[in-house]
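INSTRUCTION: Work out how this chain folds

Token vocabulary: learned, describes local backbone geometry

RECORD BEGINS BELOW THIS LINE
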Amino acid sequence: MNWLEGFSLDLKLGGRMLVKYPGLTVVGGLAMAFAICVGTVIFAVLTMLLYPTLPLPAGERIVQIRNWDVAVNGPEPRALHDFIAWRGALRSVTELGAWRDVTRNLIVAAGDARPVEVAEITASGFRIADGAPLLGRVLVSADEEPGAPPVAVLGYEVWRTRFGSDPDVLGRTVQLGDEYATVVGVMREGFAFPVSHELWTPLRTDVLDQAPRSGPAITIFGLLAPGVTLETAQAELTTLGRRAAIGLPATHEHLQPRVAPYAQMFSHRSGEELGILFSIYGFAIMLLVLVCGNVALLLFARAATRESELVVRSALGASRSRIVAQMFAEALVLGGVAAVVGLGAAQFVLRGWGVNFLEVNLGRLPFWYDLRLSPATVLFAIGLTVLGSAIAGMMPALKVTRGMGSRLKQAAAGAGGLQFGGVWTAVIVVQVAVTVAFPALVYVEQWELRYAQTFPAGFAAEQYLAVRIETDPLMVPAANTDVARVAERASFAAAIDELRRRVAAEPGVRGVTFVDRLPRTARPQYNIELADDSTGTAQSARVASADSRLPLREATVAAIEPSYFEVLETPILAGRAFNAADLAPGASAAIVDQGFVDQVLQGRNPVGQQVRFVQNADDAAIRGANPWYEVVGVVKELGMGAPTRKGRAAGLYLPATPDRFDRVYMMVHVRGDPMLLGPQLREIATAVDPTLRLSELQRVDEVTNDILWVVGLWLRVTVMMTAVALLLSLSGIYAVLSFIVARRTREIGVRVALGASRWRVIGAIFRRPLSQVGLGVLAGGVLIAIAGSIETEMPGLSGELSPRQVAILLAYAALMLAVCLLACVVPTRRALGVEPTVALRVD
């Protein structure tokens, strides 16, 4: 174990080197810390998504069971009939239970109605999830029996925020939608099984439709029996599935029951998605290699100044491996400091930004998604540190120690010595190219952020309050689905009319209308075909392509109430507005915006034009089955596009009532601050119908805030990457030129002593570094040009470079060349200041 003592001495020497070379320590340490931070964050997030684990005592044994329809290659969630059958027959899985996800209004006091995520769950869920309550009790099997009084268990956050942590909440009656329940317990902080729920009620199977492949969607779970594996449980389920297929061939012929670890219910990915995710792992490793390659360049330049020391050590008997180990230990000390900084930054990113980023993109997160530095993540960071240190320390060490035996004679003769090879030249060119390309990426993201911030709504959006409205679906037997759907729609329409009437009567309200999507958000897009009024023949909105097929123009479609334009105080530019007659069956009125007129109609008179939606431009039968709509009016553009979509939208509006929308948003025009109306809206909605749930309450001008946050986050990350790339590039160029000056000091002095022009000498010495910088700038400019010429969905990038953009690109390349050449200033001054008498005394 003697090598440990020597390695410890090398680590101490590495610590002294950090102090001796503070510039390299700061630049190299920050660069490695950034790479370790990025790699750690990516590893933590992807590991959490791909390999989730349940933080429960029996987490590895908790499983999910579901039916898989092989005919459509998808799950069949309507499994209540099978759950009841499996609960009595399955032996390999115990504590078999089920839950269904519902959202209900929790009404604590008059008018205080807010939606909560409710799990209707069997009592077994609390047994397998270690559900010890904070107050009272959890659900028990008796709560599921027919005729049992309705009860509820509150989540900790609901108890704290909605009930003020009232210790006497037990026994209190609360209203959930249009039903009432007695509070029997409060769960401990952090408990959210089965996913991320806030309140629990019993799953009453006696009031739900239990016919095969009918009823509500449920999730079935259970606990593997002692000694039972997933394979054993799957074999038993397969047997039960075959029996069901024989007994119920009409519904179960193509159903196959499958069992899987419970936490993987949200982690299933297609092969393409897995490829993308694992490519992100590759990106993290490539970033580390690139950064540490640049740090290796700096360390190599430093090692060149220590060449005499290393040659002497070799002459005194030090082996090449011993010298390489010493330089690796020095890099490892630098990497260790960088790892501490990188891990701290990764923890900040995961806790400060990670949760918000995932919730914006994925929605509500399961309780087992824990964004923190796990032991596996720390080990991964340690592995990155060792890998980075090996690249940064061993690459220059191997280069420096090559041919060590003959270097002492060469140094004494003033010839030979270390030289930069092709690998180092490639590193310099790549880092300069990256330095040039990254600021352009920052510009694009900054432009996208500004585009999203200034994306026009076309009206005074800050004066409007928007809220999404949902209602509880009726639970009826499958045989009465059609009748129930008609009754449910009629009930919802009556509730919406009453809600509109009451809200419109509130002081300060200037108008109320409904729409299926809010302005400045993504809306459905359809291919549009026109009918020529003079010939009646179908024609495309664009010129036919070379193969004579008819390409179609896309239009963004919105379903609105007839009062929409009036409430938005938008005048009709041509034709007329919608009226009540346009809602009658068979009516075919449509209104288009100016973007539709310019892009689809290409400036023709829109009023009276016939349009229809086309799913397949090549199938005349499908095209002929779609109805025609007549354009009756034109309005200005009212935010029919979205900040995330490229180009100008072509908007088409169709009249409908809210009960026929696929989703319903209410927009209220308010005098003063619209958000002050929020409490009254909740109170009115509760009074009209307790099942009306209000969510996404916000001002209309704030609907893009989530997009702005995500784009802003990427902008900050890109700025940090750009700063690191620029710092490394300038430091690398500086190190290269300093190395060259140090290696050729004697040559410079001799040539100046013989009468050579100093500028001529400097030009000869710096020709290669400057050509490397120029090549890197050229490569970066080519990358930008290629990226700018690619057709993308990013707003504002048309896929073609205009002359102005080309001029900006050339000016930018020249600017970056000048910035990179700034790193040459100090070495150049040092070379110009070399005195011949000093140069001749150099060893």
User: Anything to note?
Assistant: Residues 411-416, 533-551, 793-799 have pLDDT under 50 and may be disordered. The radius of gyration is 35 Å. The chain is about 50% helix and 15% strand.
